[in-house]
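Two records follow; treat each independently.
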Amino acid sequence: MKKKIAKYVSQNVIGMVGQSVYILADTFFISWGFGADGLAVLNMALPLYGLMFALGSMIGIGSAVIYSIHRASGRDVSWYFMQSLCWSLIASIPFILFGLFVPKQMLALMGADAALQEMGKGYARLCLCFAPFFMCNYTFTAFCRNDKAPSIAMAAQLSGSAFNIVFDYVFMFVCGFGFTGAALATICCPGLSMAICLIHFLGKNNRVGFKVRRLSFSYLRKAVPLGMSGFVGEISNGFTSLVFNYLCLGIAGNVAVAAYSVIANIALVVTAIFNGISQGLQPLISDSYGKGRIGDLKFVLKSGLIITSVAEALFVISAFLFTDPMVNVFNSQHNAELLAIAHSGLREYFLGFIFAGINIFLLAYFSATARAKIVVTGSLLRGMVLIALFGFVLSRFFGLDGVFLSFAVAELTTLIVILLMSHTAKSRD
């Protein structure tokens, strides 16, 4: 079990970090080419990305969870993959329509002024129109991971990110496509990732079936609650960006939004690592739960909590020790006001990771063991309700400091609620 934990966690963390790097690469090259305005546009597009990724994650990961549990208990799961894929395609249709017809209006809804809308419309249009690739990619990688092929899932995620890093530069600067070039590089990533996963699905070790059945709402109702932790793991960054963009604009204008963009994109990689730990352990948790191996289940839970706690400590300490170097990577124009806001904001925001990593892991654990009530409640609290509530309240009293500190207060409150619900559920059992 120790070897399995080390393998699944390390490979999935590397894969998730690699997957998040393509947005980080966009941030670096866009800041290099377009400065604070480019960063502001990118950060206003993050909520759109977040919702797209969240829906794909919810369907794909939720489907993979019930696939793993039901396969361990001996049920027919040969049609789960195609159900997940079809529901992901259906969920992508609104994004395609938004991208085709109203990309500027979508950016305006996120808070962009006329100049920022014009700068980012091509980027938003391409990314939204290719929503099916981004969303279906979660089904491919999640089923690959749950079919005992974490190495291929990792290779798939890393390959897409490596492509994006190289071709961000090529499309934006060598070919002269500018802001739209960043989108061109980004939309190629999930396609390459899914192609890599096909190595497993078409190989001799594949156990994932490809039977096609009539779309089942009953299947979707079972998958969605169990994928809620994945949903919030993805959407929380986007929703937080939407709330924080609004608050930052009102307090200090576009420079504050650009400063938060730097913080949000650094936090994106940290969140990806915590998601990687949780999603890496999910197949082991679901398999142990499905087979009734309580000893293995407790061991994986304990190991996950230890790994997550160590990671939390490292990230928070690093944020305080290397604050300015982290910010200056994305501050190509050496904007003193941006640096000043991001300096204090990064430290205040990262205090939230003292609790966020544990929350992400616990929600993934309860998802993998089919505790849907705890998952839905905890996920909605940390991903939407509390971050908005504390963001608006604390900003009234403490300005920008209150905005960034609201993340930590929301995560601490969520952790208390999760522990209370878990204790109550355990007492009933």
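The next record belongs to a different protein.
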Amino acid sequence: MDSRNTTLDIARGLGIIIVCIYHIVYRPEMGFADMLILGGIWFILPFFFVISGYLYKPDKLFSVSENIIYRIKRLLIPALKYTITLLLLWGLYCVIVHGVTLKEWARDIVLTYLRPEFYRLLIDQDVRIDGLIYDMISTVWFLWTMILAAPLFYIFVDFTNKRAINLFLVCAVLIIISTLLHPYNAKFSWSLTLIPVYSAAALCGAFMNSHDLINKFFYRKYKYILAVIAAVIHVKIFNKFGSFWVFSNSICNDSAGNFAVLIFFLQVFIGGYAYIVLCDLINKCGVINKILAFIGANSLVFVFMHRIFSTIFADIIGAPIKSWEFWYVPFTAEAFIKSFCGFIFTIIMCSILACIINKRAAKL
């Protein structure tokens, strides 16, 4: 069990690394490296829900509401502390260094918490908000998704853990709900219409743990061959259907049509098998496994801080900031080297901050 938990920490750590590369490092648009990162980013984030479900430990003493409250205390409150501090300090930095106005600062504070899912109910859906403060702290959407997916998970987890048919029926209903909601992505973008699917992924993770499916199916003689086959299938699905569009709720851009959500759901587990085999292999690799496990265990710090540190580094060396207007720039060796150095700087600074937070928590 300890080995598997380390492997899951590595899976989260490697996933965070992919997210950081996606947000920081420049590469040729739609080139091999870009497509590899895109294929990873859209798969890794929903796979975090599978890991979260797998790590769920049922406690009969707690009700559904108590579990939700625990989730809020453990996840939402620390994240709110992070983001409030960032909005104040980072906002001040942007005012001083980037000339952000106080009005823009106030607007971005509000919209960072409202997210597109909510503010598009209040303003014209064609209005694009891409202020520097908002853009750099936009990962808060993932937090909202995890919090809002929790009630569905806790309501159904006991029922779905009993029998495979129960899990199949609940997942089928949740996938259908997301499929029906999907055309409304103009008002609910990025996460809300996929909350049922993310809940289904977490339920599958909990089922795998309760029935020890990891030992039954994962540790097999031919797991590496199966992992390669799964990886090829994952890539084929990604290339044929462009399933990353489902993640951003852009079904109109997805050739899978009404089956887009279902394909997206299945792809999480097909690619997930290959991904976990890879992480289990990394777990046997000396120092690398310890570094990735550390990052995975402190994923919240890396999620919220990686874009901040990379932007500060870009300001120091006078490089473009990888935000909306500079998401892709003409690719040169200089652009790559500077952004890659920013990536290394970010990983080091986030690690230092994580150590400080851990030491402070240990004293309390």
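Discussion point: The mean pLDDT is 81. How would you locate this feature using only the token line?
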